[in-house]
UniProtKB/TrEMBL annotation:
GO function terms (MF aspect): ferrous iron binding; oxidoreductase activity, acting on single donors with incorporation of molecular oxygen, incorporation of two atoms of oxygen
Protein residues bound to Fe cation: 88, 90, 138
Name of this chain's protein: Cysteine dioxygenase type I
Record keyword Oxidoreductase present: yes
Keywords on record: Dioxygenase, Iron, Metal-binding, Oxidoreductase, Thioether bond
Source domain of life: Bacteria
Lineage: Bacteria, Bacillati, Actinomycetota, Actinomycetes, Streptosporangiales
Organism expressing this protein natively: Nonomuraea maritima
Length: 174
């Protein structure tokens, strides 16, 4: 896929900007932070998604891969109120921005046979964050009473990999 195929409202400046950042060959953490600066200035609105996509699903949160190439992907996530992820980490750096709803994030440290909670954050509309593995074990929950829509940019081709998750954790939290 190349930028000529990017037809979603507001997505093209983001895709061409991420392409330029990735081409600089920074380390993962600095790439995530540079992409966060870009996303902060270019966060698309809800019309990035079609009305049908913005319905979400009663069963679980839904992801839409909006753009994927060898070294990065742009994914929209739609969460109805109360929907969230299991505890997981990622295959690559990730930068995300909140378009609507609240992404309540709980962070964990892997102690081998159990996890320890090390932090919590409420990510609100307009807010952008970036991170890189290791140390990115978390779960995310839409704690607002509104539909949650967020945009996630990963430093990998998640279409080819089948997703952004490296590992799911079913260890006890102590
Ligand atoms: Fe995640």
């Amino acid at each position: 896929m190349n930028t000529a195929t990017v037809t979603r409202p507001g997505l093209e400046p983001l895709v061409s900007g991420v392409s330029r950042i990735v081409a600089r060959g920074l380390d993962a953490r600095d790439t995530a932070f540079a992409v966060a600066d870009l996303l902060r200035d270019n966060l698309p609105g809800p019309d990035l998604l079609t009305p049908a996509e913005r319905e979400g699903s009663p069963d679980r949160y839904v992801t839409h891969i909006l753009h994927a190439e060898d070294d990065f992907s742009v994914v929209a996530v739609v969460w109805r109120p109360g929907q969230g992820t299991p505890i997981h980490d990622h295959v690559s750096w990730c930068t995300f921005g909140i378009i609507s709803g609240i992404e309540h994030e709980t962070l964990y440290r892997d102690m081998g046979d159990h996890l320890v909670e090390i932090g919590r954050a409420d990510n609100l509309p307009g807010e952008v964050s970036g991170f890189a593995p290791p140390g990115d074990i978390h779960k995310v929950l839409n704690t607002s009473s509104e539909l949650g829509v967020s945009l996630h940019i990963y430093g990998a081709d998640v279409a080819k990999l089948g997703g952004s998750v490296r590992r799911l954790y079913d260890l006890p939290v102590k």
